[in-house]
Amino acid sequence: MIFRAGVFACLMAASLLASAAEGLVTLQSPHTATATMDRLESIVKEKGLTVFARIDHAAGAEKVGKSLRPTELLIFGNPKGGTPFMQCAQSVGIDLPLKALVWEDDTGQVWLGYNDPSYLAQRHGAEECAVVPKLSKALEGMTKAAVAK
C-alpha cells in the first residue's frame, strides 16, 4: 500500500511540474521527443494546416556549447482559424500562429504541450469568441493522436 501511495505521489508531482505553466495543456507521450514531433507534424499537415517552422532548441543549444534535453517547437496554423480569432481580438496575433512544444524532462518522460485557446481568449479579452471551442477541439484531437500508442 505504501508503494502504491509513493508511486501515485510521484506521478502527481510529475504531472504538476509538467503543467505548471498557466494556460499550457500538457500530454504525456509514450514516444521519443523526435517521434512525437514527427507524428504531430504529419498530423498537422494531413489536416491541411501550414507548418511555418520546426525549431530544435537542443540543436541550438549545442551550437553555443550548451546541452539541453530534447526540446522542439512546431509553429503551425491556418487563416481559417486564426483570422476569426484575430477578428475577436486583434492582439491575439502575438500568440498566433499556433505552437506546440515537445520536450523530455529530467526523468526521460516526453511531454507535448500547447497554449490552450481558451486561455489565449481570456488573455486577450475574447472569452466569447466563437472560434475558440473549434480551435480547442482541433488542437486536442491532433495532439492526442500524436501521443497515442
Outline the structure in words:
It is a single chain. This protein has a single domain, classed as TATA-Binding Protein (2-Layer Sandwich). The radius of gyration is 17 Å and the shape is globular. Helix content is about 50%, strand content about 20%. Strands 1-5-4-3-2 form a 5-stranded antiparallel sheet. The protein is an alpha+beta fold and about 150 residues long.
Helix-strand category = alpha+beta
CATH superfamily: TT1751-like domain
Question: In what range is the share of β-strand residues?
Answer: 15-25%
Largest sheet: 5 strands, antiparallel
Overall average residue pLDDT: 91
User: What would the CATH topology be?
Assistant: TATA-Binding Protein
Keywords:
149 residues, alpha+beta, five-stranded antiparallel β-sheet, 6 helices, 5 strands, globular, TATA-Binding Protein, single chain
Topology:
Elements: H1 2-18, E1 24-29, H2 33-46, E2 50-56, H3 57-63, E3 71-77, H4 79-88, E4 98-104, E5 110-115, H5 117-123, H6 132-147
Antiparallel strand pairs: 1-5, 2-3, 3-4, 4-5
Short description:
This protein has helices at 2-18, 33-46, 57-63, 79-88, 117-123, 132-147, and strands at 24-29, 50-56, 71-77, 98-104, 110-115.
